[in-house]
Amino acid sequence: MKALLVAVILFWLPGYGIAMPQDDTEAAPIKVVNATQDQAIAERLRAITTSITGMEHIEINVQAGVLTLSGEIGNTQLKSDAGAIASRLEGVVYVQNQLQEQLAVRSRLEPAAEKFREMLSTTVQMLPLLLLAVLAVFVFALAGSWLSDRGALLRRFGLSELATNLGMRFVRLIITSIGILIALELLDATALVSAMLGVAGVIGIALGFAFRNIVENYLAGVLLSTRNPFAIGDAIQVNDMTGKVMRLTSRDTVLMTLDGNHLRIPNSLIITSPMTNFSRNPLRRFEFNVGVSVDLDLLVVRQLAIATLQAMPGILTEPRPRVLVQELGDSAVTVRVFAWIDQQETDFLKARSEAIRLVKAAFDHAGIEMPEPIYRIHMAETNAGQDIKPVQPLAAAPAKPLQPEAMVDVSTDDSIEQQFNAELSQSDEENLLPAAKESGAG
Questions:
Q1: Structural domains counted in the chain
Q2: What DSSP element (H or E) covers 72?
Q3: Do residue 287 and residue 360 come from a single domain?
Q4: Are 417 and 440 in contact (CB under 8 A)?
Q5: Is 22 a member of any domain?
Q6: Do 297 and 327 reside in the same domain of the chain?
Q7: CB of 64 within 8 A of CB of 38?
């Protein structure tokens, strides 16, 4: 039985091998029936290359369907294109691309010269339109420049100098842009506008990040010149910086400190920080604290301090001086003294100094005790045989009588004012604030 099975297998194996399918990847045979003649192929390709710039000098040779390209050609792209065209011709079996790129300078410059001649010819034809486009840009730019010099139109609406300049620049830019758009329309180049706007947007974003602080200070200068929170000569305080305003520029605000130094503060810092203007209101109040004994009648102390301030030159009777009990301490009662002055006639620092001096003198003359702080001291034990010398108390200084009112000097201090006016008259730096006032407040 096994022998029979083996015989059947051996009988069918040769037939099975013959019945297996052929490999489909075998190359298709080259047809030779009714094939295009070699001469016809060469003439057809020569007609094509003659019509293409840069392929006029290609040498073509066809033999048995094998097409050979030889000679010199302008560049690699033309060489690749010539080979692609040749391979598409009917009857071509194989293409031998033996073209060589031209290395001579003259051959390299010929295409560029041809393009330049074409551009020159196009420019000559468009010369009338080009002149009209240039004229349109010139006329609109001239009109924008004329309008930008008419800032008085915007000042009638109450705008500041910086805001007016910014508005005039914006008007000039808009009018000039209209002229450019008309010129592009005449030249049929409006598609260029979209590209220009895209590039301008990208450049604007980049410049915005790069010059963010400068832009912030410029915009803050516009807001400050519009809101006018201070004028030339005003005494202001921004954070812990104090001085008299000299000028406002597009980037910073210049102060003269009470030491005579120039202080430049960025406009963005001023617009975002708390600011105190001491000169906007000519009336200003000063205050100081005095400590008196806890055994005294506070009503008498209050009346004496008010009477002393009312008799002092430079102190206003309305609003009248005030004395309030501030705090009850361990060894003294603290009272706070308030008084008002007119900064246009009285110096603030001088008035406060004289008020403190006169109140102390009045209290000394009336026998009002102003005790010092009391401290409890624990003494360590010492040797019995060591003598301790007592400390001799200092003799109390005699109370000085009150000075006459004629000797009280509370006049305005013009030392900084003189330096301030000299700087304003000598400096030619831009100033966006209105003209200086006749007299500055200290």
A1: 4
A2: strand 72-73
A3: yes
A4: yes
A5: no
A6: yes
A7: yes
- Asked if residue 343 lies in contact with residue 284, where contact means CB atoms within 8 angstroms, the answer is yes
Place of tokens 């019995």: 384
Q: pTM of the entire structure?
A: 0.52
Same domain, 290 and 271: no
Residues 202 and 261 in one domain: no
Computed from CA positions of residues 381, 382, 384, 388, in that sequence, does the dihedral angle turn out positive or negative? negative
The amino acid that residue 77 corresponds to is: Q
Same domain, 59 and 158: no
Residues 352-398: tens digit of each pLDDT: 999 999 999 999 999 888 887 666 677 766 555 555 455 444 344 34
Strands 262-266 and 275-277: unpaired
Q: Which of 234, 233, 280 is nearest to 420 (CA)?
A: 233
pLDDT band at 160 (very low <50, low <70, confident <90, very high): low
Task: For the beta carbon of residue 176, count every other beta carbon within 10 angstroms.
Answer: 18
- How many other C-beta atoms lie within 10 A of the C-beta of residue 416? 18
Looking at the structure, tell me whether residues 205 and 311 fall in a common domain: no
Helical (H) or strand (E) element with 35: none
What angle, 0 to 180 degrees and rounded to 10, lies between the N-to-C axes of helices 161-186 and 127-148?
Answer: 170
* 172 and 75 within one domain: no
